[in-house]
Inverse folding.
């Protein structure tokens, strides 16, 4: 009876002046336009209310995750010396800008994946977390690999797939910087505009359409801030030198949505702040001001989901009432001991509700304050499948197992960073070309 979370161990919670120590390993994307680190440090210090964050950035043009690992694991090299200092809470590592989107059987990609795995092992030796900085697609795609990367959206999608695969292999977590680029890009598309003609998107890049501008580096820092802390960058004032009020609001909104909203259907992304044991929390899944995404496996006992939490039933959950205003996603088996069951927050899912008793037609099976998709749930009683109808956010036993189920529009899911279901996310590799950035 335990709760396993969808990222690796080691969540941080800052109180009373405890400041995180952050080491970055990157390339020219990291240090362009004054550097991401110069913006990130004041954001962390303001947002966490700490006096001084130790943040060191190591970067050379064109370097890959394989390069970073090779240097970090060697002797008498600045990368190894810095990591060997110890005490790092986070190692933020960035790959060369094209490689993560290459085919995953291609040598560049496999070398970078192995590098990420090696870096993860090194930082975990000092109880730190590997955070992979997901970069962004180029403004007009990549002319050196035009068939693979014809435009921003295609390139960004492939980079996202690659970084998520790196994270899974390395046991690492994600800072989805490129996803924030995509938020701004796709908002413009939704308005019927060409993002490559619009200042809000163009201004993220320097003149080459690849490296970040000062605005882009600030957006990257805001995403990393949210990814490390689980706290929204909205409202921060420090770290935004060189951007005007309109740009700051757009940066903060895009960073918030990239981290906390299911805008691209990949919640739950692996973030460092998603860890919490339900037994340690006395049946309360919450994390103060932080967002929490968790998977519930074979847990029995009282369960309360805080307003910033999503809990997915992955195995079985034995219980009747779910308290709190968070979101419960049933993709496993919720064993309901007595009818009716209730969810004080939101409910959705495609899993199974297993009842200890057979309901009479018209009897309420489960009700929720808010909901998403409930039609796809399966209900089983002691004698087999149970017919049910959906009325708003209430499941009621019905007469006919083949009868229609209705989920009226307007019953929107709420109570957590995303309303969608929780899901995870072949050319033969010949001659892929990479640039030095």
């Amino acid at each position: 009876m335990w709760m396993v979370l969808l990222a690796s161990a080691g969540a941080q919670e800052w109180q009373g002046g405890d400041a995180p120590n952050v080491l970055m390993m990157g390339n020219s994307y990291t240090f362009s336009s004054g550097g991401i680190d110069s913006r990130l440090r004041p954001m962390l210090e303001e947002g966490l209310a700490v006096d001084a964050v130790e943040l060191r950035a190591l970067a050379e043009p064109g370097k890959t995750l394989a390069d970073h690992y090779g240097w970090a694991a060697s002797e008498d090299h600045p990368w190894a010396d810095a990591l060997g200092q110890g005490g790092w809470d986070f190692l933020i590592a960035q790959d060369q800008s094209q490689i993560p989107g290459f085919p995953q059987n291609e040598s560049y990609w496999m070398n970078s994946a192995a590098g990420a795995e090696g870096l993860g092992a090194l930082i975990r030796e000092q109880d730190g977390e590997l955070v992979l900085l997901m970069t962004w697609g180029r403004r007009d795609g990549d002319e050196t690999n035009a068939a693979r990367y014809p435009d921003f959206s295609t390139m960004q999608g492939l980079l996202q797939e690659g970084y998520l695969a790196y994270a899974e292999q390395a046991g690492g977590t994600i800072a989805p910087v490129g996803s924030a680029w995509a938020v701004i890009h796709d908002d413009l598309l939704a308005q019927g505009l060409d993002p490559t003609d619009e200042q809000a998107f163009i201004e993220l890049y320097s003149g080459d359409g690849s490296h970040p501008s000062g605005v882009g580096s600030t957006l990257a820092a805001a995403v990393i801030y949210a990814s490390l802390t689980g706290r929204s960058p909205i409202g921060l004032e420090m770290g935004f030198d060189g951007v005007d009020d309109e740009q700051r609001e757009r940066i903060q909104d895009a960073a918030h949505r990239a981290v906390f909203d299911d805008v691209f259907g990949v919640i739950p992304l692996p973030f460092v702040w998603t860890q919490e044991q339900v037994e340690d929390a006395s049946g309360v899944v919450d994390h103060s001001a932080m967002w929490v995404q968790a998977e519930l496996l074979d847990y029995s006992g009282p369960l309360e989901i805080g307003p910033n939490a999503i809990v997915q039933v992955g195995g079985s959950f034995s219980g009747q009432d779910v308290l709190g205003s968070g979101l419960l996603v049933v993709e496993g088996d919720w064993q309901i001991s007595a009818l009716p069951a209730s969810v004080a927050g939101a409910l959705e899912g495609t899993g199974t509700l297993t009842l200890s008793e057979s309901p009479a037609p018209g009897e309420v099976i489960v009700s929720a304050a808010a909901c998403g998709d409930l039609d796809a749930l399966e209900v089983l009683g002691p004698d087999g499948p149970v017919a049910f109808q959906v009325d708003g956010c209430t499941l009621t036993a019905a007469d006919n197992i083949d009868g229609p189920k209705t989920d009226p529009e307007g019953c929107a899911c709420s109570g957590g960073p995303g309303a969608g279901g929780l899901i995870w996310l072949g050319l033969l590799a010949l001659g892929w070309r990479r640039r030095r950035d």
Notes: The first strand starts at residue 2 and ends at 5.
